[in-house]
Design goal:
This protein has about 110 residues and is mainly β. It contains 2 helices and 10 strands, in the order H-H-E-E-E-E-E-E-E-E-E-E. It starts with a helix and ends in a 6-residue tail after the last strand.
């Protein structure tokens, strides 16, 4: 986990002790290709780091078609980190990689464990 944290451009700016503290509260989750990580309109409060693989950020059209907006790769951040406070997500995220699973670090706000 420390490797994924220190590889991220933003998180690498943290002091080593802060990176260690972040690693202590993070946990690794694995998602298969196409598996939903979180859905548009659901509460969002987690910070995610792509540890390996890829994640596709999609927005659904009114007709229900998934429109790809971004493809995130290791060691990019995605999730509620981009908001000043937790709120509903505006996009759906799915695991995305050729033939294998993808791994993500998740950091949940205190009290969500």
């Amino acid at each position: 986990m420390k490797k994924a944290i220190s590889a991220n451009a933003l998180l690498s700016l943290l002091e080593p002790s802060e990176q260690q503290a972040l690693a202590a509260v993070a946990h690794l989750q694995r998602f298969a290709k196409g598996q939903t990580i979180y859905e548009e309109g659901k509460p969002a409060a987690d910070i995610w780091v792509v540890a390996s693989g890829q994640v596709k950020i999609v927005k659904f059209s009114e007709g229900g078609q998934a429109l790809a907006l971004e493809l995130m790769i290791a060691p990019e951040l995605f999730g509620a980190v981009f908001y000043a406070q937790p709120r509903d997500t505006r996009r759906t995220c799915r695991g995305h990689r050729g033939n294998g699973d993808s791994n993500y670090l998740i950091v949940e706000p205190a009290g969500d464990h």
